[in-house]
């Protein structure tokens, strides 16, 4: 077929062949001439075909040479040229070394100190997005498998010596999922896409390996429970009502608040903000009484601005000599009683009040140290935040590490019961965003595994979003690192593996800045734990809301400390399986069969 095709072409092109012009009268001669023609045509076709093949081969060789010259690809290359723009080489770095050099503020697992191993996650993989990014040392080992099969292990400094930019991904397989990680060379994204094998059209669908991979949100767990469902319409309406009240009262509130805040700020521009209602008043009283007993009373009265959410709490605060603010219209819907349990409706509303209080003071231009009332100072923490030689000084926000590492707390695991905020445009934007989207606090968007509401998940997620967009530097201090051990809380108190650490605290071997009795379901248990820790300084007459009655009895020149405060801790035993300053061998165990005596 090819011969006929090319023969036709050659005839059409008036191919010159030696064909006799005289007419042959011999049939055999005619046949011979025809055979010669066919042979010559076939020979020419084959010659032309061979020439075409030769030209094509030369072109391929040339193109191949250009590819090799541009990518230096060889059989020992770690990655093919198809990914060279984001994976030209690879190196390994110790995670402890990497995090020490590039502190994004995200803590390690709470049980790990900076120097401890984290099996299966001890190293960081670094991929190089081009030849110029490759490290100056061990360059060949990062790109080739000639000398060794595994990537080279380097220090964080050496591995990143030529990196003009560094994108960092934190990842952890949760819930037993068979996790895969895909890196796509494409338009830059600053968020992680999540895909999971579920039935995307069925609400509550669990992980099912027979289903196709389906895009999901960050809160979906393998059991089908979504920790970050969208707020309902009623939550939006409630937040709009709260915002309407906020803006209606804003000018008047700022007029009253500004001189109070300026008085607290002093020379260092720091205002300590606390929020409390009558139901939690004995915890606030204990904070003040313990500060008096430990020599911080003057600091507390100078630096703390208390947002009282009801009249009774305002009376107590003034009786204690504190600076306080109360606006009945802003806080008219706030509960006077304490939360029945962690995360109930009263708890949720108080969380909203905490956001408002910090946002107002931050917006005025002051640095803010916010703290819950359920903590006690061992040392004055303000110098920690004022020290410019502190390696954490440049962070915009500093949180106590909550200790939880569940999905909803990612990535900071920030405890919003103790945190510091430096005043700048970035933190102002963050707290405005938290305020304007208050429906997140009013809805189970921040629901916990126990079905209760918490402010920490939306705060953590908003912090991370702000970090990505505006380079807010936010630090959640690891519970077990050097400075993290100075800000312990309920995680350490309730964990059996932290017994020795807690013994160091109660014996005075380690003196932290504070102790925060978080991770505790209700106020009654908080009081019992503080009492056996030797951290309770409130006389019985001022417990259970008694501070309100005592405050009403005060006359000019009298103060509430006389009735409410003990100069020494009032120690009593309640549970032998919880940390205590003295042995509580005769007390029951609150954790049942799983409990283990502390002493």
Question: What can you tell me about this protein's structure?
Answer:
- By secondary structure, the chain is of the alpha/beta class.
- It has helices at residues 2-12, 27-71, 95-101, 139-143, 156-159, 233-265, 281-294, 297-303, 311-319, 345-363, 382-386, 425-436, 439-442, 456-470, 490-494, 499-506, 523-532, 546-553, 561-564, and strands at residues 89-94, 123-128, 153-154, 194-197, 213-216, 270-276, 304-308, 323-325, 367-371, 375-377, 397-401, 414-421, 474-477, 514-516.
- It has a 7-stranded mixed beta sheet with strand order 8-7-6-9-12-11-13. A 3-stranded mixed beta sheet has the order 2-1-3. The protein has a two-stranded antiparallel ribbon with strand order 4-5.
- α9 links the parallel β7 (304-308) and β8 (323-325).
- α9 (311-319) crosses α18 (546-553), α10 (345-363) runs antiparallel to α12 and α12 crosses α14.
- The longest helix has 45 residues, at 27-71.
- The radius of gyration is 36 Å and the shape is elongated.
